[in-house]
Amino acid sequence: MRVIRFELEGILNSFRVPFFKTYHKSFLTPPKSTIIGLLCNISLKNQKDFFELLNSDLIKVSVILKDLQGKAKDLWTYKLYEKKNFGKSVIRRDKLHLAKYIIYLEIEDKDLAEEILENLKEPKNTPALGLDDEIVKISNIKIVELENNSSNIVHSTLLTKNPKISDISQIDNNLHLEMPTFYKIPTKFEAFDKKGKRKSKQPKEELLQVEFFNCSIEVSNIKSYYDAEYNMGVIFS
């Protein structure tokens, strides 16, 4: 299977776990919606384009956390509708320091794939992952051929209804280990009414995001692929 592969690297990035409000806990890896948002941003697509791509599954994504140098926290001041505390409040946020990701894109539509590939190489807007000021570097853009993965050992984040993990193995004993963590997250949204007018988004579908670092997992119920060049097993969603 031919896919687009590229790498992302940021200095400080954060991907808020839904439903964490007073404390912005971060995913280790950007959710699919964040990757689609990046692609729309560098292609100058609008919000309607974003939700159409996200809900249609025209682009399937796989994400591997390649490196993570550490975690930090910052304090974010924001305005309140109420006037208590002088109309301001503070939230503590997780930040990922020097995180590097390998991203795979499966795009069946040839024209869309060529458009995305061109905009990855020459972005029309500043690439940001997460918030607008969380700029990232895009590198090593390449079309690669993936094989079927007979071992079922994978290194990518999972996004599925019912993951079945049968084995976990640490990769490098000299690096810290992040065991698989499960989060239930919305993956598709209803954001426009029948007349095409923007409205408050409502979740249409929820799946489990399973993420980890410095380990591989063996899954038994999800089709996976193998990147021979990087020696990585990946799953698309």
Describe this structure in words.
With 237 residues, this protein is mainly beta. It has one domain: Alpha-Beta Plaits. It has helices spanning 32-42, 47-56, 110-121, and strands spanning 2-10, 12-13, 23-24, 59-79, 88-107, 136-145, 147-148, 153-154, 158-160, 165-170, 178-192, 198-213, 215-219, 225-227, 232-234. The strands form 4 sheets. Strands 1, 2, 3, 4, 5 and 6 form a 6-stranded mixed beta sheet that branches. Helix 1 packs across helix 2 (47-56). 30% of the residues are buried.
Describe the structure concisely for a colleague:
This protein has one domain: Alpha-Beta Plaits.
The rounded Rg comes to: 18 Å
User: What structural class do helix, strand and pairing data support?
Assistant: mainly beta
Query: Approximately how much beta-strand content do the residues carry?
Result: over 45%
Uncertain residue ranges: none
Count of individual beta strands: 15
